[in-house]
Amino acid sequence: MRKEMKALVKHRSGHGAEMQMVPIPEIGPKEVLIEVKAASICGTDVHIYEWDRWAESRVKPPYVFGHEFSGVVKEVGDLVTNVKQGDHVSAETHIVCGHCPQCMTGKAHICQDTKIIGVDRDGCFAEYVSLPAENLWVNDPDLPFEEASIQEPFGNAVHTVLEGEVSGKTVAVIGCGPIGLMAVGIAKASGASSVIAFDLNPYRLELAGQMGADHLIHSGEQDPLDEVDKLTSGNGVDVVCEMSGHPVAMNQGFKMATNGGRVAVLSLPSKPVEIDVTNDIVFKGLTVQGITGRKMFQTWQQTAGLLRSGRVDVTPMMTHTFPLEEFEKGFDLMIEGNCGKVVLIP
């Protein structure tokens, strides 16, 4: 086997990245080497690419970034028993410690010492990636590599939507980026009586309609709270999935939730957000949930089931595919917002 591979490297502090030839990773006794067949671009990757304040404080170039992928097992360590050469796999991207109180009580998704693939260690924008075997999820070999590569963010959406009851409920999805679009499809597949999608981007609102949203609200041209009042006879929505991270949109989300409703927040605001806790949370009796990662591995089971059954069709929001060498086209589309999910092929 050759010793080098092509990879997309965050080569320095600052904007951009570059293709380089780097050593193929070596594996330890509990690790696996995977040949990457498809890797999708995440919002986190965009933060790293653009080198915003979060990236500057967290990542340490030079290294290979990217964390959403699917591929085929090429080599396994001597102590690996859960996967074998030739298996089609994706990965839980949070590498957890296994011994903190959260890990010891079945809550590894909120491990106190989480390390993230493509953030804290080399990632998957490359021909090969090495990972702990315990982080791998074996895919149905009939699942296309492109679709298999988006299971990690799909799991974020599953966790957000299905952390509480959805069947027969009105669901608002605020922010129709890729994970918001997935949330629309998941809510519909899970029996939501009505799904209302909010965004400022007409292109992504159109995609939300294709994913099954019953109502599309352009928050810059319509008053979201007025529209929700009309659509719910003044009662408000039962479930709010906050995916935007925008202070105004977040406040609207809390205000549009019905008394006794649930607000699930996956978004990551760049600075503190002021919320009227007294009137919009306490007096309304809301349940507010912060969502991070995926439950290991309950969320992966739900994700695989939704995709395998065909209950959620992700193809409408998988809008662009490029060779890895054309990464700049993909990142430009993500930055502009003129895309759904972008997949890179090494």
From TrEMBL:
Reactions that this protein is recorded to catalyse: L-threonine + NAD(+) = (2S)-2-amino-3-oxobutanoate + NADH + H(+)
Swiss-Prot/TrEMBL site (Important for catalytic activity for the proton relay mechanism but does not participate directly in the coordination of zinc atom) positions: 152
Organism: Bacillus selenitireducens (strain ATCC 700615 / DSM 15326 / MLS10)
Localization per record: Cytoplasm
Residues reported in the UniProt entry to bind Zn(2+) 1: 42, 67-68
Lineage: Bacteria, Bacillati, Bacillota, Bacilli, Bacillales
Keywords: Cytoplasm, Metal-binding, NAD, Oxidoreductase, Zinc
Binding positions for NAD(+) per the UniProt entry: 179, 199, 204, 266-268, 291-292
Family membership: Belongs to the zinc-containing alcohol dehydrogenase family.
Cofactor annotation comment: Binds 2 Zn(2+) ions per subunit.
Keyword DNA repair assigned: no
Protein name, UniProt field: L-threonine 3-dehydrogenase
Pfam families: ADH_N, ADH_zinc_N
EC number(s) reported in the record: 1.1.1.103
Enoyl reductase (ER) domain: residues covered: 14-344
Free-text function comment from the UniProt entry: Catalyzes the NAD(+)-dependent oxidation of L-threonine to 2-amino-3-ketobutyrate.
Pathway noted in the entry: Amino-acid degradation; L-threonine degradation via oxydo-reductase pathway; glycine from L-threonine: step 1/2
List of residues binding Zn(2+) 2: 97, 100, 103, 111
Subunit structure: Homotetramer.
InterPro entries for this protein: ADH-like_C, ADH-like_N, ADH_Zn_CS, ER, GroES-like_sf, L-Threonine_3-DHase, NAD(P)-bd_dom_sf, Zn_alcohol_dh
Organism superkingdom: Bacteria
BP GO annotations: L-threonine catabolic process to glycine
Record bears the keyword Metal-binding: yes
